[in-house]
Amino acid sequence: MNTATTQISGTYELDPVHSTFGFAVAHMGLSTFRSSFGQVTGRLTGDAGVPSLVASAPVDSISLEGPPEFRAHVVHGDDFFAADAHPHLTFRSTAVELLEDGSATVRGELTMRGVSREITAQGSYRGPTEDPFGGERIGLDLSTTVDRRSWGMNWQLQLPNGADALGWEVELIADLELVRAE
Q1: Within 10 Å of residue 5's Cβ, how many Cβ atoms?
Q2: Which of 4, 10, 47, 180 is the most exposed place for a label (fewest CB within 10 A)?
Q3: Is the peptide bond before 160 cis (omega within 30 degrees of 0)?
Q4: For 11-180, CATH number?
């Protein structure tokens, strides 16, 4: 297995149409609740041979179906994202390792609700590839699992059988396609 590091040069901007940042959490021990954020911005740079990834999304761009009260509770309520006080999610890498075998590890600081925590996401890296319009693209598919309580998301409801209504562990998923900036 080849584990040499791939070098990135230049700047790649996130293609929001072909990128997704989302999460998945167990609900009532029966299913997995999934959602994603729109309006995600991001940039991968390879200046001086040291890759760096930054990304941001407005909390209120979360896709949520259901009654308005549910959206208000999750987006604006203090139990979850508290978007009125903390309107954006942000990520800033401290290390980006893209290997020639296509694997990727990204370490960095995720900030939600005004709380910053170190996370490590792993996944795959592909590219660069020329697109049909003469541009150059790369792809990163990353995931990690975090405990939502680390960001003060402590809401819980006990089910009649004693189990928790909502899982504490949340999978974060970032499927990113980035285009080389001119």
Answers
A1: 12
A2: 4
A3: no
A4: 2.40.128.110
Q: Which DSSP category does 76 fall into?
A: I
For the chain, 182 residues long, the average pLDDT of each consecutive 10-residue run is 68 95 97 96 86 96 94 96 97 95 97 98 96 94 98 97 97 97 82
| 70-106 core/surface letters (b: 16 or more CB in 10 A; e: else) | ebebbbbbeebbbbeebebbbbebeebebbeeeebeb
Torsion of CA 144, 65, 29, 82, to 10 degrees: 60
User: Token digits for 6?
Assistant: 């791939």
Structure token digits, residue 135 = 């541009």
Instruction: Indicate the pTM of the whole model.
Output: 0.93
Burial class of residue 49 in the structure, from the number of CB atoms within 10 Å of its CB (0-12 exposed, 13-18 middle, 19+ buried): exposed
Query: How high is the pLDDT of residue 3?
Result: 56
Cβ atoms of 115 and 151 within 8 Å: the answer is: yes
